[in-house]
Amino acid sequence: MTKTPLTFLQVLSIFSFSVLLLLLPSVTAEIKTLTITADSRPMILFEKFGFTHTGHVTVSVSGVSVASTLSSPDPSRLGFFLLSEESLLQVLMELQQNPSFCVLDSQYILSLFTFRDLSPPPHASFNQSYPVSSPNEYSLFFANCAPESQVTMSVRTTVYNIDNGKTKDYLSAGQTQLPALYFLFSLAYFAFLVFWIHTCYRNKRSVHRIHMLMAGLLLMKALNLICAAEDKHYVKVLANVASVVIGETGPFIKDWVTWNQVFLLVDIVCCCAIIFPIVWSIRSLRETSKTDGKAARNLAKLTLFRQFYIVVIGYLYFTRIVVFALRTIAAYRYQWVSNAAEEIASLAFYLVMFYMFQPAEKNEYFVLDEEEEEAAMAALREEEFEL
Description:
Layout: H1 8-21, E1 31-39, E2 43-51, E3 55-68, E4 78-84, H2 85-97, E5 110-114, E6 126-132, E7 136-144, E8 149-163, E9 167-169, H3 178-202, H4 209-231, E10 237-243, H5 253-289, H6 295-329, H7 336-356, H8 370-383
Parallel strand pairs: 1-10
Antiparallel strand pairs: 1-8, 2-7, 3-6, 3-8, 4-5, 4-7, 8-9
Helix pairs in contact: 1-4, 1-5, 3-4, 3-7, 5-6, 6-7
């Protein structure tokens, strides 16, 4: 069947969705530097990391100052601790039963140190490394149980596991497979790119700009995976400044939920921005087919874009629901499975999309007879291509 050039809106829908695939979040190495300024939150989450039996956590604080509108706060009421996923619900129940309960007094936490261990002013600092002998996924928290107090400090956290007795692995126990995983998929995309270039060259008379953009997307995706694989081998220090509004007394999870709701809203908007051009293209082709006398070509385009719409919906459903479910239910040692499923789905989507919109040589002697044109018109009238 003859293939005609795609319209700008159709090109935009394909290109914009493919770009969305390149914007998937990646994991960074677990070394972070954070500056806390005038923070009155009772709990602050710093890290979440999967430890093996050779795990270590290092916490370094400096420039510590505590301001309070009441009497001088008890330094033992401020400190750092580790909390496993299993114990989190127990601690939340303790806090729910007794709102004035200090989490530092809980039997379910692994206490690291309190401000009582700080060096004397004006330095007010502390630096200590702690072994984690019980393998599990732990969260590193700071607790402030001193009423009406605000904390200012610089915090540097380092969490890692030791491999082979000497090598520090800064990736969580469930993410150590990611470098090899991303590297293998990058090779797959480079092979895909070579094949796509060969296909375009073989059908060069039917190649359009969209096909060049699609080749560029493959190159970007392959390079993105290589960078992601390399990023897992080196330590990336993240410097963040957390300036907290004075008077904020909400729980530590409040901002986390808010930002996740914002990210979810942005994700939904992006998905809608991808789907609307496809739906608009289908409706536009339906209207055009009634007047331009090219029913057979329009029927082919409508069929193609309806199939593409189904593929997009399937991909969004898998990556937004199935992958999320895998990430939620999988044990911390198998978190890489959700990344693998996401990359497999992305590669499968690319393969299907590129197959559907591959360049094909036009048959200059191909002519549609009246019967074929009438059959196409009848199909357009009967199916109506409602989504």
